[in-house]
Amino acid sequence: MAILALALLGACKREVRELRPDPPVAAALGGVAALPVGIGGRPPEVYFALGKPYRTNAYQLSEGKRLYAWFGCAECHGQGEGTARGPALLDGWWNYGPAMETIYLSLRDGRPGGMPAFHTRLTEDQLWQLAGYVQQLGAYSGGAAAPGRSDEPPVRPAENRAPARFAPLEP
Amino acid sequence: MRAQPRDTGREEAALEASLAAVWSSRPGLLGWLTTVDHKAIGRRYIVTAFLFLALGGVLALLMRWQLAQPEGRLLGPDRYNQVFTMHGTTMMFLFAVPVMEAMGVYLVPLMVGTRNIAFPRLNAFSYWVYLFGGALLWIAFLLDMAPDVGWFAYVPLAGPQYGPGKRADIWAQMITFTEVSALAVAVGLVVTVFKQRAPGMSLDRIPLFVWAMLVTSFVVILAMPSIVLASTALILDRLVGTQFFNPAAGGDVLLWQHLFWFFGHPEVYIIFIPAVGMVSTILATFCRRPVFGYLAMVLALVGTGLLAFGLWVHHMFTTGLPRLGESFFTASSMAIAVPSGLQIFCWLATLWGARPRLTVPMLYVLAFLFTFVLGGMTGVMVASVPLDTQLHDSFFVVAHFHYVLVGGAVFPLLGAIHYWYPKLTGRLMEERLGRWAWGLVFGGFNLAFFPMHLLGLWGMPRRVYTYPPELPWGGLNLFSSLSAALLAAGFLLFFWNAWRSARHGEAAGPDPWGAGTLEWATSSPPPPWNFTRIPVVEGADPLRDSPDALKVAAGLRLDRRELLLTSVMAAEPEARESSPRDSVWPLLAAIATTAMLIWSIFTPWAVVWGAIPVAATLIFWFWPRGTPEDES
Fold first, then answer.
1. CA torsion B28→B31→B33→B35, rounded to 10°?
2. Which of B77, B166, B241 sits opposite A149 (nearest CB)?
3. What is the ipTM of this complex?
4. Set of chain A residues whose Cβ sits within 8 Å of the Cβ of B159
5. What does the domain layout of chain A look like in residue ranges?
6. CA-based nearest distance B6→chain A, Å
7. Which of A64, A121, B155, B515 could bridge to B245 as Cys pair (CB 3.0-4.6 Å)?
């Protein structure tokens, strides 16, 4: 019984599909307190209140994966292996560190060297979805939730089977 | 060697006492968990299946509430997807198929005059597996984790790219549970019908319901492997990274639809054929004459079972198949009208001038005839490709298959519950309440579902969670939803009647209807050993042919559970065979299987490690314990 109750509690938020967040929630999601250097910072309160779904919810991750394809991320980053124009995302080496809010800031504001800013093209929650997917690509250990492989010719192991290749920098 | 006590020439009371000592289950919870009595398990199956019917019905009401008005606010799109998937999956896999098999589990051994179903422990195992599979699906629903891909789970929407999370995996694994339990029951029923019939019950004396269950069991055995294959391939695609359904890597999306419908269409007949058997049984009893054209009826049942495997493609007419394929499957789909029509005319001939007693079971049979013929007509309509192209995925199809499934299977089932209720509980269901429930169910159903034909013709698609007010669908949808409330009230009344009659119903004797088949030869409800003496059959209607004294067979041992094996064709006695005792291991094996199957949703290694407890429980299950039953 206890195991069952635990499983119920643990699974509570795992599969929830928030198709469209409430407008005030979506607006609050943009309130990242960034450090002046643009690396690291504090996510908004609402991010924690939601239960950090963008890394633990399979639906949010798979939405991130769709955005990755739709917004041309593959042009520079390939399927995560990187190209001459953009760094790899799969190898676990992060130019600005692996923190979720940093990846969010990279996506929102762009980075020197060609990374464009996406804040005019994506909504706040979409930015978080994409950040979650990108972080998951280079994560050091497999998570409980992952998007499935695409129905495309396989060029690399599927996301749900591929933790980053390099030794962990942080747990 | 010790002399073995036999039942030859014993006094009735002494005989019953020694049979009770061998066949009774232990009292209390342990006895409840360990019993292998087909009647206890059949009753349990039926109650559980009706519980799932009620749950699935609540989901249907939620959908009707949502669709009653344009832009309804009760359910969001995501929840609606889960609700219609749960409704379909629950009704097909957790209600319709199990309840039909459950009726077979309860009635077939009684109707063929034997003491227990073949492989009774496997039968107990099948119930537990079914229960746990149903629990898996519904707990997932409570966790917002229910499948949302339709009861057919088409790829690519159910595949790894478009089906994130574990929802489709839960669907696929739930299918595995129902496959296992359905196959286990089917095997037991086939062996019971072939080898355990009462002496003298040759093939042409088998009751029509038993024939129907036999054909159904074969259809289960032949159809289920297809869905085993399909759901396993789906899980492998999603979990292990195989590419069965990925066209980019040499897989095939349509392969899913072929495999699914090669099972899915026979599934419809798995539900329908037992219902046909129920109709024949009820008609024969209340018309007080045997069903007209016994041979034609049996051949129609077998023909339906065979044709069931030749028309799955009519579910796929809009996928762009070769013209020849479409023509072939149109023809075969229309051909199913031949055996169905044959049966309808045999029933009409039975009714002709018979002055049937209009009891509640008989009323349900009449409701069945009316509704099923209507559903069959629309079936012939959607069997033609040009019309199907227009109607595909519209509410017309929803109306069609509810007419066929509710009219063709649920009405006979409700009639059968009323008819066999005395055999299940020893009491009759209340007639007046039953008539009210019948009226509400029959009227409510037709009022709720007939307008859907029109909605479909007016272009309303299936599986939409709402529609804009500009479209002309609001009025009929509201009417349909209000009528659905009538239907629900009818079911509520039926449940209330069944609940109340179990306690306060009029006590029924062994044969309250004056029926002719063997299950009425024993007391209501029957003792654990079914028949104190094994009956001998000399005609198709044993109780009517010899109303005063049924001939019986003797010579069975009394110190162990023993039953009589007879030959397949003529049912000549061949051997005495032991029947297993109660055991807790089927339950434990079912728990181990459940753990393995659920675990394997999360990692493929579960199949390796989870197989160890399964193997261990099976070893204990079959371990000889030195009981008299172990002697060969």
1. -150
2. B241
3. 0.85
4. 148, 151
5. 53-171
6. 48
7. B155
